[in-house]
Each structure stands twice: as structure tokens, then as C-alpha cells.
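Holo model, 2'-deoxy-thymidine-beta-L-rhamnose. Inputs:
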Amino acid sequence: MPYPAASCHIFCTVIDNFGDIGVSLRLARILQNELCWRVTLWTDDEAALRALCPDLPALPCVYRGMEMRLWREGEDLPQWQGADVVIETFGCELPGRVRQGIRARKSLWLNWEYLSAEEWAAAMHGKPSPQADGTEKFFWLMGFDERSGGLLREQDYAAPDAAALAAFRRSLGLTPKTAPEWLLFGYHSPIWADWLHMWQAAGEPITLLLAGTQIIDSLKEAGALPRDSLPHAGSVFQTACVTLVRLPFVPQDDFDTLLHLADGLIVRGEDSFVRAQLSGNPFFWHIYPQDEMAHLDKLDAFWRLPYPLFPADTAAAHRALSDELNGRGRLNDTERLAHWRLLAGRDSGWTQAAEVWRQRLFAQETAAEKLANFVKHR
Ligand code: TRH
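Output:
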């Protein structure tokens, strides 16, 4: 094992939502559990961290063996003692004292970047970026092929069994499943009203488990849901054949179980996107929108990997809906419904393709394994 008991400090700033801290927390846990590193996680958003782990004591604290501390980007940390490994997530700016400490101790310094399947990301992964003060910082770019920095997947990742799923269902107050259930965790968008209309027009019973508030807010703003509907976690709203259920925000520990509970997934950002793939369920990715639609290149770069596993007509239907979901063009009601019906049909091959893709990911080295090798060979 490389660097046993190495000290590792992870610095995270939360731009919005839960992905920045979600990835940082998962990384911290994995490095501690699998590489036996002594991890300190620095965050600037205690509330976001607490949403993911509600049993977190007030910061600073020790939580499950990790140190959790607060920092503010732009402020110095005069008492910082140094660490063997320093990871800045998503391009945050480290305090001067930390940079000096890295130089003095020759710490391994990583710039842990956003996940991407784009060619430039694989090419840049692991490359040094020399700094003006002579230190080197290395890019870590997670991804899907052997050149990338891998994915955050726990060695002991296991699908929950039927008893665990049933218990989790009860804890959420969900009634027994009588129709396919889709977990929807997406961003604010006018498209949700059209998609709700699509599910209503499909005429088949479906339950939409709504995580987060952005989809519900979008539906209300579009007039597709009454303003006073779904007021709190556990609320249910029935419209035609579609049952909408508002979920609570569950601890990150339970998020995988939530993904396994559903039959299909619409996930977003980065961490929920990866976890959806590990669940083996069919999914759409509502990618984090970027200026000038730059997210579409990233979206395409990902889907070109699993699409060859899909039957051709299934891939075409998925692409049409996925593009619309992510802001590339608009379908008419007839086209949208036809694509959905094809995909949701028993013979579409979508479920099988998602399972084969899951198996491929499980056959790859994880980010932690790659990092262990990186340290060993450095
Ligand atoms: O929340 P996200 O949209 O996060 C981000 C940020 O917006 C970030 O700035 C952006 O750059 C990035 O996406 C690409 O989506 P994500 O990445 O899926 O993170 C959500 C986290 O919240 C993930 O760790 C799962 C967790 N989660 C729970 O723990 N419980 C829940 O109930 C839900 C809905 C999510």
C-alpha cells in the first residue's frame, strides 16, 4: 500500500448545489477507507456538507475518522501544519500558507477536476502543471477509459438486497410499487412540463420520484402543477396516469439505495450521474448547463461510449430525448411520445445495455487504485 497513513488535505469550495461537496466527501471517504490515508476535508459550506451527512457534529470536528474543517477561499490559514498530499477540487484557489507548505514539504499536489469523457481530458490527466514558485501540481481528470483518472467507486460497493430496499421504501413512506418508478433529480428547466405531458399521454401508469426542488419548481412555474401541490417531502400528486411523489433529501449514504429503488433514472451534475451508472439502471443525464452550450460536447463525448451497446433505434430515440433534455433542439409532442414509447418498451434493449455498461465500469480500475499507482510510480 503506498503512503500508508499519509496525511491528505482536500480543499473544496461549493459553487452551487451538492456536486462539489458530494464528490469531495466521497473522495475523502474512499482515500481514508481504501488507502488508509489520514484525511482532512476543508469546505466553505457547512450546510451543504450537513445535507449529505445529517449526523455531522458542528465544524471543526472528527467525523467517521476524518477531520472536517471550515475555510474561506481568499483567506490564509496561518496555522496550517502541512500534509503529504494536498488535493484542490474543481480549481479552488489554495491559501498562500498551504502553497508554501506544499513547497517546503514537497507534498503531492493534485488539481482534482470535473469528470469528462472528452479527448482533451484523457490527454491532460496526470500531467504536471509547473507553478511559478517551482512546485508542480498534477491534473486529475476522472473519466471512463484507462488513460483517465478513473471513477470514484468503493471497493465494497454492493447493490442493496430486497430487505434493505423494502426497509428503505418504508422509511420514505412509499407505498408498495404498482407501476414503474422513475427517480428524477434534474435542474430547473421548462422541458419538465413537456415531459410530464409526454408521460400523461403515454397512458401507462408511472410514478415519478422527485428529488430536489428544481423539477417541482419548474412544473409549477409552467402551470403543469398547482402552486400548492407537493408541499413537503412525502406529498403525492396524481395527474392522469402519472403519480408524482416528493422525496426528502436523503443522506449520501442512502443515495445509492434510492437509485436502486427506481426502475429508471434521470440524474444530473457529476456524482449522481456516476452513481446512476454503477446502479445498472437505464438513465438520462441532465448535464450541468454551461455558457454557450459547451455542455453539449461533454454530453456527446459521454454517450458515444455506451451507445454502441444500444440497439440502433433505441440509441436514436434516447439521443433525441437526451438532446432535448439538455437544450439541443425541441421535439414536437408526437415525436417525443414516440421516442419514449420505443425506449420504455420491453424490447428496447435499454435495460440490458445499462447493465452491460455497468459491468464494464466495474471491470475498470477505480480512481483510488489509479491514485495508489500514481503515488507508487512517482
Ligand atoms: O447537485 P449537483 O447538481 O452538483 C453539481 C454542482 O452544481 C456543481 O457546481 C457542478 O459543477 C456539478 O454538479 C457538475 O449534482 P451531483 O453532482 O449529482 O451532486 C449531488 C450530490 O447530492 C450527490 O453526491 C448525491 C447527493 N444527494 C444526496 O446525498 N441525497 C439526495 O437526496 C440527493 C437528491 C442527492
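The pocket of 2'-deoxy-thymidine-beta-L-rhamnose is lined by residues 15-20, 22, 52, 185, 211-212, 249-250, 252, 255, 268-273, 288 (CB under 6 Å). The CA atoms of residues 235 and 246 lie 6 Å apart.
Archived with the compound record.
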